[in-house]
């Protein structure tokens, strides 16, 4: 049997950072945005990106081999996926979260072993008692972070707008709304809804700009507050996306109890994350995201749909269910 085994998979995983960093550097350089303007030969592309001649050709051809660029008759162009999702000029751009990964997470993950041994966060804000307070105190970093959250929320937001029975409800609030991708997507898809975003007060100008750009200021408003200190705004539906995993178990239970208190009878809570599968075997992204919470936060961790349903029932929710959204993301729905 040993003769039939190959180390290829193991080596591929071990050197996976090569692939990742090649993509992240291409995003950082704006390569895909430049090629969205027009195909280019290697020398033109090298000159526009300001690259040294030594390895520019290897860099471009590595992106061809990785399936991110195409090359025909010496001209490089984006693949269909790269053209849609990695061109900064398009609203479908998801590179914000990749820019965040390149600027922050890549270096922090170099200290994963230390995090596993100590249980302590390893990001540049590891010494801060409140990770989000430090992040939100810097306007430039805050805007970049919120934009990145829009990139990671765009797909789930569209799925939530399509799959949740919004016709039964008239209002909603997105808790930890960031820039406002979920409220904008849901409100645009369902004109009868009145929506709101709830986040720390520093987010308001960024949220208002995003909602105004989507032409929804008449139906979607911002509510400022701290969801650990303030009551949540009342609405028929409360959404918490990529929020619970930031916090330890006691804090998770506190947030679910706050949501239950803010909902009317028959109201619904939607929690969505990259939920770990109940058997903890297949959703590698969800498990790796939980390791990211180890690196980024003092007590955060990801969880299974069954875990979340149990916490919801403890909070008082009478009905709970789990529905897949797309990719690694699923939502847990609780009805009061």
UniProtKB/TrEMBL annotation:
Keywords: Methyltransferase, S-adenosyl-L-methionine, Transferase. The keyword Transcription regulation does not apply. The active site is at 245 (proton acceptor). InterPro entries: COMT-like (IPR016461), COMT_C (IPR001077), COMT_dimerisation (IPR012967), SAM-dependent_MTases_sf (IPR029063), WH-like_DNA-bd_sf (IPR036388), WH_DNA-bd_sf (IPR036390). One of its GO terms (biological process) is methylation. SUPFAM superfamilies: S-adenosyl-L-methionine-dependent methyltransferases, Winged helix' DNA-binding domain. Pfam families: Dimerisation, Methyltransf_2. GO terms for molecular function: O-methyltransferase activity; protein dimerization activity. Residues 15-87 form the O-methyltransferase dimerisation domain. Residues 109-317 form the O-methyltransferase C-terminal domain. This is Methyltransferase.
């Amino acid at each position: 049997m040993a003769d039939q085994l190959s180390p290829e998979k193991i080596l591929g995983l071990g050197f996976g950072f090569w692939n990742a960093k090649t993509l992240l550097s291409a995003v950082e350089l704006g390569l895909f945005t430049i090629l969205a303007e027009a195909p280019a030969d290697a020398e033109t592309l090298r000159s526009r990106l300001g690259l040294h001649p030594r390895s520019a050709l290897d860099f471009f051809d590595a992106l061809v081999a990785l399936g991110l660029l195409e090359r025909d008759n010496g001209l490089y162009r984006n693949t269909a996926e790269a053209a849609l999702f990695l061109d900064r000029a398009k609203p479908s751009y998801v590179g914000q979260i990749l820019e965040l990964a390149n600027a922050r997470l890549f270096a922090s993950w170099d200290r994963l072993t230390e995090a596993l041994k100590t249980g302590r966060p390893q990001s540049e804000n590891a010494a801060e008692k409140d990770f989000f307070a430090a992040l939100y105190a810097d306007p430039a970093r805050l805007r970049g972070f919120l934009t990145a959250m829009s990139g990671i929320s765009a797909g789930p937001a569209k799925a939530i707008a399509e799959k949740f029975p919004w016709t039964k409800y008239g209002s909603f609030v997105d808790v930890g709304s960031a820039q406002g991708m979920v409220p904008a997507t849901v409100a645009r898809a369902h004109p009868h809804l009145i929506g709101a975003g709830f986040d720390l007060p520093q987010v308001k100008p960024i949220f208002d700009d995003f909602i105004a750009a989507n032409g929804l200021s008449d139906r979607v408003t911002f509510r400022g507050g701290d969801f650990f200190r303030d009551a949540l705004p009342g609405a028929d539906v409360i959404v918490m996306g990529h929020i619970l995993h930031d916090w330890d178990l006691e804090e998770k239970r506190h947030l679910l109890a706050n949501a239950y208190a803010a909902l009317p009878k028959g109201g619904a809570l939607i929690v969505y994350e990259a939920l770990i599968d109940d058997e903890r075997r297949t959703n590698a992204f969800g498990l790796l995201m939980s390791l990211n919470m180890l690196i980024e936060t003092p007590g955060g961790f990801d969880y299974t749909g069954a875990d979340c349903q149990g916490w919801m029932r403890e909070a008082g929710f009478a009905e709970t269910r789990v529905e897949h959204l797309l990719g690694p993301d699923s939502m847990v729905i609780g009805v009061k």
